[in-house]
Amino acid sequence: MYVLYPLIMKTKYTSIIDIAKQLNISKSTVSRALTGHPNVHAQTRKAVLDLAQQMDYQRNSLALGLTRHHTNTIGVLVPEFMSTYFPSVILGAQEVFQAAGYQVVICHNNESYDMEVANVKLLLSYRVDGIIASHTKETRNFDHFRLVQRHGIPLVFFNRVSEELNVPNVVVDDYSAALEAVEHLIKTGRRRIAHLAGPDSLINSRLRRQGYLDALKKHKIPIDPGLMLSYDLTIEKVRIYMKHFLELPAPPDALFAINDPTAIAAMEVVKEKGWSIPEDIAIVGFSNDFSAQLVFPRLTTVSQPTLDIGRESARLLLQELQSGAKPDYTNRKAPCVQLKTKLIIRDSSVRKPVVKKKGKK
Amino acid sequence: MYVLYPLIMKTKYTSIIDIAKQLNISKSTVSRALTGHPNVHAQTRKAVLDLAQQMDYQRNSLALGLTRHHTNTIGVLVPEFMSTYFPSVILGAQEVFQAAGYQVVICHNNESYDMEVANVKLLLSYRVDGIIASHTKETRNFDHFRLVQRHGIPLVFFNRVSEELNVPNVVVDDYSAALEAVEHLIKTGRRRIAHLAGPDSLINSRLRRQGYLDALKKHKIPIDPGLMLSYDLTIEKVRIYMKHFLELPAPPDALFAINDPTAIAAMEVVKEKGWSIPEDIAIVGFSNDFSAQLVFPRLTTVSQPTLDIGRESARLLLQELQSGAKPDYTNRKAPCVQLKTKLIIRDSSVRKPVVKKKGKK
DNA sequence: CTGTTAGCGCCTTCAG
DNA sequence: CTGAAGGCGCTAACAG
């Protein structure tokens, strides 16, 4: 494919040469003045800075990256941002990166593997100094991430991490959190607990499922394979599977959902059928999305420290960046940070003890 | 400030020179083979392509941008993404940009003006080919956007547009939408309608407020200035102001909120006070965020075609890009696209006629 | 079809 | 304190 690009060279950016000419000095001096090098006469520096300002000088990162081999920029790779999870993580990460003097560039792939690969290459070609990422639900081949490592640029995974890649990562204890959530259901009297699991390509999906299974085992509740379904995280599938559950001869009396959007979509189906939550069926989600406290009844869920996940990912990356160590981890185990979750019990799993009602005014 | 960067040049990227040497040909030939130039012997091309693959060759966009003067990259600037509005717009925009062969880079500033300025300069220094943006609520000085125009790079505003800048933009008819929403409240019998408006720095905030005022005027409802408050879009303020409203000697019987998060926070306050929605007070929001259909009662709101807003913004930018016209709009009015909104009436403003109840099973 | 040369904008020696 | 020269990786124009 040979693409002809239209020449969009309109108003020329001013370069250091332009301002060097104006001032009748060499471009080296201009460069030094601009970058804050100590060996420049104060007067010269001022002249340069003033003229630069006046001429709208905008340093060319492309050229800079070309010589410097690094750009002071970090790439962030996320699969989606329709839930509040990733936006919030990004917020936390950005906070730390900015404080460290790094700019952040975000790439979003809408759960598309091809897009993810393209974005990784884009970031690589931008010569970002590091990348933090959560892969798509489609990602089974991690070669593009290996490429990142081979280029020696630090990489940190969060949330959706990879087992086959030795990459620093920050996660929560999905297994224990799921176990605790399901135990909560068991302790509140539920016995036929269904689980809507995510795709096997996601490690936290597998871990949460294992937590679910082990909770049942621990409490000697027989496992009914018919009550456990893996799906692709699309809302349509939730509806189909949930309807299926409810129409079972022996329907579940509780649902543990892989995440909050799933739980919420499931609640919708339950309500449409005219069942009551939590009386007829209890629902528990995962992540404590913003919407979890909004739905009616309010959703019991596992809260994740999203801001901290972002912050920790950033710190981990910064650490790699500063250590200057070879980031291929051939000789060492990549560091892994595990953050705490918290089960938030709301109305979707436990009946409210008392309903207070005040009159108007 | 003179910062010393650690030399992070680890595994060297392979360049066309490396592969030229290996193959004992010139780098021009390699370049031609790689870019798909027709004048290359098929055999040579294959050799180059194979070796490139084998050596993890990753074309250096920096160098490319340096020579080509454009980067095939678009910058997207958003103030926040805690509501579903901006994520959804980005989704739509990305769809169009990708189809046109552009990569998208997102910058997020968390409503900080300084951050916005920094991000604009970053994008400029990256030499992006175009920018679509929604400014922060703090932005009153648009010099950084003027800078973009002066550099001749196309710019499109969406949602939060600027009056003092002649920039193509895509918006909805905030005024009429607000008017319709408030008329809905009036027609369903409300008379003391409060309004929580956004800051004056946001044009759509001003337009929605005007729609509110004109709806009252049109229906000869006296305007009570005490029922209208502008605030900074933080949840804490919503709570304070809403409490204030409810404690008024003559409290409002309806609220028109600048956006859905505001409406939802207000509902929370109402519920805490023990009042019923919509019986005691009706609530109407704006934008039809994902959460609008989740809250209880479900929120009446004005739906915005967020995906289309993104798509249209992208199309507008592409158009500017292709026209190659000087994007300073000194001689012409910048194009403006206005998209349709739709009032979605839900339970927060109108009592449900019948409550159907089915038994279990 | 292929090699040579020049230059994009910047920084970094190396000499003054 | 400042200038000259070289090079980062790539493409484009000009010769073959």
Automatic annotation (TrEMBL), chains A, B:
Start and end residues of each HTH lacI-type domain = 14-68
**Is this entry keyworded Transcription regulation?**
yes
Q: Which domain of life is it from?
A: Bacteria
Q: Which GO terms describe its molecular function?
A: DNA-binding transcription factor activity; transcription cis-regulatory region binding
Q: Name one Pfam family in it.
A: Peripla_BP_1
Its keywords, alphabetically, are: DNA-binding, Transcription, Transcription regulation
Coiled-coil features, chain-numbered ranges: none
**What PANTHER family does this protein's entry cite?**
HTH-TYPE TRANSCRIPTIONAL REGULATOR GALS (PTHR30146:SF109), LACI-RELATED TRANSCRIPTIONAL REPRESSOR (PTHR30146)
Protein name from the UniProt record: Transcriptional regulator, LacI family
Species assigned in the record: Chitinophaga costaii
